[in-house]
Amino acid sequence: MDKYSLLKKYFGHSEFKPGQEYLIDAILEGRDAMGIMPTGGGKSLCYQIPSLMLSGLSLIVSPLIALMKDQVAALKEAGAQTAFINSSLSYDEIRIVYDEIFMKKVKIVYIAPERLEDADFCLLMSRMEISLVAVDEAHCISQWGQDFRPSYLKISEFIASLPRRPVVAAFTATATERVRGDIKRLLGLQNPLIEITGFDRPNLFFDVLRPKNKEATLKALVSQRRNKSGIIYCATRNGVEKIWNTLIKMNIPATRYHAGLTNEERQTNQDDFQFDRKTVMVATNAFGMGIDKSNVGYVIHYNMPKSLEAYYQEAGRAGRDSAEADCILLYSPGDVVTAKYLIENRDEKNQLTPTQRAEIKRKDYERLEIMNRYCKTTSCLRGYILNYFSQPHEGKCSNCGNCKGEFEKLDISLYSQMILSCIVRTGKKLGYNVGRALIISTLRGSGAGRIRELGLDKLSTYGLMNKTDEQTLRGIIDHLEEEGYIRTNPAHSTLEITEKASLILFKGEKVMMSFRRDKPLEMVKAKKEGKKSEGKRKTAETPEITEEAAEIFEALKATRTKLAKNAGLPAYIIFSNATLNDMAEKMPRNIEEFLEVSGVGEVKAARYGKDFLETLAAFAEGEN
Predict the structure, then answer these.
(1) Fold for domain 409-516?
(2) Nearest CA among 501, 451, 456, 509 for reference residue 477
(3) pLDDT over 70 at 290, yes or no
């Protein structure tokens, strides 16, 4: 069976996404490959189809149990012979999988990287014909990546130990040029085909909000999306517990995930989310990598992540089925303090030398600064992300908060003089520089004991900006730093003026700053012609559906839920929302037409076609 027949039979698609065919052909020709593709771009298909076509066994190295379970369940539903081996299986269950491998009853085996160090597993593999080793989330091999896992460094040793070298392929959604170089070198890829299809996700709407009250803003955002599945990321366990309790009090069906819970509770909560028993997951970054849930409609970051790679990967868990989805970050300056604490107190990796750990920490701080700038930029948010990953793009994307928002440019020269003068006068009085918090408190005329104790209430700049709210004042200081008038001493986090500041203080240089006039998020998304948005945003991947089709879609969802419950599977494993939308538009009347729906393969058509066709027929005959 050729690749096109397999694509239709197992996955229900008639054509490949960009880049997929090149990578599949390279692997089938016996060439190593590296695929850099966005989440939802179809990375898994690039190793699944060759695995079904090659004569021997294919090993898929994957970092998390959840991904293995999801992909194996989906492949089995499609009719493919596959299995996984990880710590969730008992010794007896692992032995059963080993027997199935030895008897060639499976074609594809998903494994955790730690399994490559198991003597029994390595002995079994030495007796098998291995055609392909595919490494998913390959950025984990690089200490420059945000998810470095030392166990990934053992992959090349395992490959070298095999009697015959298989084809090696690596895949990731987030990798800078330096990380891509590490992947190629550390995996020992030989003359690989490197296919970079881009990092853009047009169906995702990006926004950064700087609310005065984060919790109130979050409650409003979640309330607007009660009928959608979403993930809320918090920086700490305490943050997760707090937000989870808040949502429960709002009668939002929410669950939680963090390292402080038992393994059993984490698994139960993850299953509740995967199976749509709970619509919202509140979690730390311990949740997510490898999560294959396709119907996540929004991702909200309650705190700023430590890097743009981490943010884009976590935000990218929305809209995996190509439907429109929102990625919203709620920013506050305190997030930077939290992120620095997490960097300083990260888990030490025993495999690393002190020099390596120091270098990783330095890189962590570099990434944090880049992430912080993303939260403060007034330019296109999507463009900022694509710049970081070195991808060309248009100046404005028209689908982010900054491009859709309204800005006005104001002269902040007088405010700038006050701030710079306060920094100078404070430094002279104390004999040392202080941080943002004390400068802001002095300018706003705070009566705090610390201000009086240091005598800062006696400065001429004390209370000069008592009518300026703290958020605006912080924004102006950030702008002055971005423009080079102020710098932060990295050793003490104190503010210092630069030589350039003299242009404002003594030469009357004007300083202009753009202020975004934030509207409620739904209004920001509306088109600028002055009319409210009349439906979903329209993209190439998600054509706008009619009101009648939306009604049919809900009926199809009910049918899917019933089938998923009977099969003990997450609903999206049966069919994705995108497939149900296409079904509602095409209204197939028989199995032949049902097979023309995008995402419907032969096995699933035979298994579920009758139920969905009956639902559609009821609408066609006007019974509903």
Answers:
(1) Arc Repressor Mutant, subunit A (1.10.10)
(2) 501
(3) no
**CB under 8 Å to 585, separation ≥6 — which residues?**
543, 545, 549
Q: Are 270 and 242 in contact (CB under 8 A)?
A: no
Q: What is the DSSP letter of 430?
A: H
Question: Chain centroid to CA 536: how far?
Answer: 22
Whether 409-516 and 3-196 are alike in CATH topology: the answer is: no
| Mean local confidence (pLDDT), 1-8 | 89
Rounded mean pLDDT of 122-127?
A: 94
pLDDT at 449 over 90: no
C-alpha–C-alpha distance, residues 299 and 281, integer Å? 10
Whole-angstrom Cα Rg for the chain: 27
3-class secondary structure, 211: coil
What's the gap between Cα 485 and its chain centre?
34
Q: 């309650």: which residue's tokens?
A: 302
Burial pattern 359-379, b for ≥16 Cβ within 10 A else e, equals ebeebbeebbeebbebbeeee
Q: Which residues contact residue 611 at a Cβ distance below 8 angstroms, ignoring those fewer than 6 apart?
A: 559, 562, 563
**What pLDDT score does 540 carry?**
35
518 pLDDT higher than 70: no
Look at the pTM and tell me if it is higher than 0.90: no
Segment 565-589 mean pLDDT:
88
600, 580 Cβ separation under 8 angstroms:
no
At 227, the pLDDT band (50, 70, 90 cuts) reads confident
What are the extents of the domains in the chain?
3-196, 204-406, 409-516, 547-620
φ, ψ at 253 (rounded to 5°): -70, 90
Distance CA 532, CA 522 (A): 9
Cα 495 to Cα 438: distance, rounded to the nearest angstrom:
10
Return the CATH fold of 204-406: Rossmann fold (3.40.50)
Report phi then psi at 363, rounded to 5.
Answer: -65, -35
Q: Say how many CA atoms lie within 13 Å of 320 toward its Cβ.
A: 25
**Separation CA 216–CA 209 (nearest Å):** 12
Tell me the sheet residues that pair with 111.
Answer: 61, 85
- The average pLDDT across 85-95 equals 88
Positive or negative: CA dihedral 533, 536, 538, 539:
positive
- 380-435 confidence digits (pLDDT tens): 999 999 999 888 888 899 899 999 887 788 899 999 999 999 999 999 999 999 99
- Give the confidence band of 288 by pLDDT, cuts at 50, 70, 90: low
DSSP annotation of 150 reads: G
CATH number for region 3-196: 3.40.50.300
| The pLDDT of residue 146 | 61
Round the average pLDDT of the chain to a whole number and report it.
87
Among 3.30.70.250, 1.10.150.80, 2.40.50.140, 3.40.50.2000, name the CATH number for the domain at 547-620: 1.10.150.80
Pick from 440, 544, 539, 146: which is nearest to 314 by CA? 146
* The residue to which tokens 């992540």 are assigned: 305
Return left, alpha or beta for 190; rule: phi > 0 is left, psi -120 to 50 is alpha, else beta: beta
